[in-house]
Amino acid sequence: MHHAGRSSGDDALHVHMSSVAPQLPRVEESPEPIEGDKEERVSQASMLVGFVRERTELFHDESSEAYARDRASGEVRRLDGRPFRDWLQASFYEATEKSARDQSVREAIGTLSGLARFAGDCLPVWVRVAREHGAYWLDLARAGESMVVRIEPGAWQIVNDPPVMFLRNETMRPLPVPVRGVGMDDLWGLVNIPEDARLLVLAWLAECLRPDTPFPVLELIGEQGSAKSTTQSILRRLLDPNACDLRSAPRSAEDVFVGAKVNWLVSYENISHLPAPMQDALCVLATGGGFAKRKLYSDADEAVIQVKRPIVLNGISAAITAQDLIDRSISVETPIISERRETIGLWREFDQLHPRILGALLDIFADALRRLPTVSLPTFDRPRLIEFAHLGIAVAQAIGESGDDFMREFNLSRQESIARTIDASPVATALVDWFADRGEQAAEMSVKGLFKELERFKPAQTDAWPRSAKGFGDAMRRAAPALRQLAIECRSLGKIGGTVRWSVTRLQAPGSRPDCSEPRAASQKPQSEQDIGTCRTSLGEYSMPDVEVDL
Fold this sequence. Notes:
Elements: H1 8-20, H2 35-55, E1 56-60, E2 66-70, E3 76-78, H3 82-96, H4 102-118, E4 121-122, E5 125-126, E6 129-132, E7 135-139, E8 148-152, E9 155-159, E10 165-166, H5 185-188, H6 198-207, E11 217-221, H7 228-239, H8 253-262, E12 266-268, H9 276-287, E13 289-294, E14 302-307, E15 311-315, H10 323-326, E16 329-333, H11 343-371, H12 386-398, H13 403-424, H14 426-437, E17 443-446, H15 447-454, H16 469-485, E18 488-496, E19 499-506, H17 532-537
Parallel strand pairs: 1-4, 5-10, 11-15, 11-16, 12-15
Antiparallel strand pairs: 1-2, 2-3, 6-7, 7-8, 8-9, 13-14, 17-19, 18-19
Helix pairs in contact: 2-4, 6-12, 8-9, 11-12, 12-13, 13-14, 13-16
């Protein structure tokens, strides 16, 4: 009978096997770093701090971001960016023939950031274009140099040591040194812009050099194969060449602002649809505003991107439909191409002509700045883009044309945009038909009553018709600016007798517009009035991508 358990023989075998089994090494904790290693690391971090302070100027901007300006080349680098880290490690090795330790580099950058924020000056930092010291500046972004163009009324010149801080993104590409005294015919031979819109596009290019005014959004529309993307690439590369001149549609408002922070000209291609929040974001970007979000979920710090940028986009159909953005947009339709060119030859020719075209644009812009104080528009004929209209008139005069020529192109673009707004809004379409049906007779009624009246004129097969009187009133407010351009005044009268009432009337024509091509008399003071819509939105803010912003 066998008993459960291990026998004495088993015990002996177990002892024997234990004695001959290999002994595994004991796992011990890593030893503490030697005191000399700590001292060497601290010493190298201090050496790196001294190395940087000797060769750069530390400062910060209004958002407390830390920068270092190279004393030798004048280049500006953000301390938390890869370009600065690479420069530090390469320069330190060349000077000492020692490789900087990663931990020492991190400690040094932390110390340098503190010095920049609390001991350095607060200076504005620009990307590609700046407005400082009574002049406009264009950064040529040439590696190892600080060469820029200084533009003043009537003149421009190359400056090698500017008093302006320009930040260069890794995807930014250099501009050629501009050449003086050549017209813009070279540009029109490369891009597919119709003759009746060239003055408008030229004014938009000039406006891209003014960071202190709201920017119009340029929208290129045309059928497939009309060289929209090639035209847009050339316009982008003329002023702000980039490793990616054309980018796909952004997925969120955050993408819009992050890309705009490190690029001057925001450029999107093949846009078929822009959701309402995205159009709000582009509107804020064109007039100037900010995007805010929490840095990390573990803290309460907030990251803010404050930018204002020129925008260009293209598509087969018009993607801009929101009234606020339409008011700030100019649309150009690219015609059908009758004779195609090889892409390689086209870009080779552009590279050869680039210095001449850029110089011609700078000549025109400087002359337009000289003429700008004499330009005025009558109060009743001032568009929302009043600053752009004034500059466009000055640009027209600078190339020997009249201000009326520019306003003709500008107003034509506005009319097409207004028609697009009406077509995109079923409420606006219904109101136009309703108003015509009643013989354009003025009406005043509650919002509910007007909503019920217009339901008879609702466009067929529309999914955007409001479901409530409140939604109807909101749609009326959005469409009111476009309807006003059709001489139909829709105005909310507020609550009267407990209900919100609206009035619909026919506007009186303001009269003919006087000729704006001639400058004012020297004794006449410059017009000081501003378009209230532009002024109120020039410092807009956009903080949540999924919320519409009423601009």
